[in-house]
Amino acid sequence: MLGWSWLSALGVLVLFWFYLYSHGYGLGRLSSSPLNNNMDTIRPRVVLPQGTYVGTTLLASYRFAKPVEVFRGVPYAQDAGRARTASARPSRCRSLGRTFDAIAWAKGTTHWRPAQRRTPQKERPRLPVVVYVHGGGFNKGYGTERNMASFVAWAEAPMVAVNFNYRVGALGFLPSDVTAREGLLNLGLRDQQMLLGWVQDNIEAFGGDPDNVTIMGLSAGAHSIGHHIMHYARSSAKPPFVKAILESGATTARAVFYPTHPRHLVQFREFLIAAGVEGVPESEIFNHLRKLPLSTIVQASHVVWDKYHDSVTWPFQPVIDGVNTLANSSQIGGLSSTATPPLIPELPISSWASGTHLRIPIITGFNTNEGTSFVPADANTSAEFRAFFQTLIPSLTPTDLDQLEGPLPRPRHATRQPLPPRARGRRPATAHYMSAAFAANGGSTSAPVYVYRYAATATHDAANHGDEAFAVAHDMWELRGRPGMRAVADDMHGRWASFVASAVASPNERGGDVAWPAFVSPFAGKDAGEGKIMVFGEGNDEMGGGWRKGRPAKVVKMTEEEREACRFWWERIGLSQGLGRKEWAKKPVENASRL
């Protein structure tokens, strides 16, 4: 689905309750066709500076508790055309007075009508907004991976939701010294910021409140959000969001290197070879790339991704793009300044340690068996297991690797059936994701942080990376015939929706009988807490074909084993952040109480 990430096909999917229709949106008519069998024939419309868009209404059904109005394919940036290796540009006025069809996923229009409007906008209440950032390792993915129509339809409080696409793979993240000199690093993250700015400028037209935006993401989407939380702490501009939900990801949970890290340079050369641009002078590389067909760029990106996928040393990732930091780094010669302001001026862990991040309410968490999706299935021996981690994090010592090969989690986390060899990596991955919770410690000087663990099992009798997605969305396609998972989704989705809608960012106002306490790190010195987290779906195995319903939600304290696992990675976080030295991490641990 890389093609969806291409800027010329970028669009915005906006969904909200039928509540808005009752407040007077102008109406059009939709002709009958197989495509529209599940849609209402009365169509909502919205007037934007770039034109008028006519959407459609998804009717209430077993899938949607309430009708949902949908506008698809609304552009938030200009068609990139031959400027596809450039930063996104704001969407220009397409044609005031024209009406565009907004029911198709693709870019473009089907038909248009004159704009109509009934109730003045100022007479409608403004609704909370949630923006979803998709995952995919910065190499794949698309905005519709999460069913945000369902998320909105099952929420008690009315709200507006936005899905969108951004450039991924070589189109969005192509780190190298050449790219840095061109000022073209982290284009995918800049697309995301373009979208957030578009939301600020336009969401009121959809009934949303630009002052009450929650940004939510899974995996690479959560990593992205972490970068934005740090970036806007430095920016003089008003942050475009006030709350965040990070599922299985954070900037402290994966490598962030300089653009001239040896790994990136090798992968850049391999991409050029795959694209047929080998041997071109550096000054001409991007001129050649801009002339290539999109399919060639996408295919070359796939070739490099496939080579490194299993080792998790993935290509095409966000990198440090601060000019001063790069010029002073021992990893790189001085890079010429560009007109592009830095988005990641230093190692993310340095930003956390210095307190350079927004103090906003956060939900963050992980799944019990995150590592099963990443440790290679053919790692059958101790040597293969150690080789995997040695390749992933070269600075790990033999003693470190011995600890990684320690016993599997205690019975509270253990599964009932034997797991494949790849599951041996599940504890390290879980702890690594959890490190974000300590960096964003919910202390007395910070906004609240709510930490969760998703425990309902599916394939391999494990709670794998991303398994929580349909429960958060309350996606009834997945919940059918699974009463226990329906209860888990009722609770989990209810808390996410409550957090989005609540004036005080509380996950406890709607949904669930168990109060979710704010997280207080057990590593916060004299202010240390018990590390209480919310566990969703423990004991449920319906997604794996079982019959056990388990418990929808319960609050638990971190076990000593969990603390040790988190401590292991937190003390070595400098190794995976690109510094290559273990001792650096002592600083954030000692100062955790003020983060």
From TrEMBL:
Carboxylesterase type B domain span: 120-389
InterPro entries: AB_hydrolase_fold, CarbesteraseB, Carboxylesterase_B_AS, Type-B_Carboxylest/Lipase
Any one Gene Ontology molecular-function term assigned to this protein's record: hydrolase activity
Keyword field: Hydrolase
PROSITE patterns: CARBOXYLESTERASE_B_1
Documented EC number(s): 3.1.1.-
PANTHER family per the UniProt record, alphabetical: CARBOXYLESTERASE
Family, as annotated: Belongs to the type-B carboxylesterase/lipase family.
Name this polypeptide is given: Carboxylic ester hydrolase
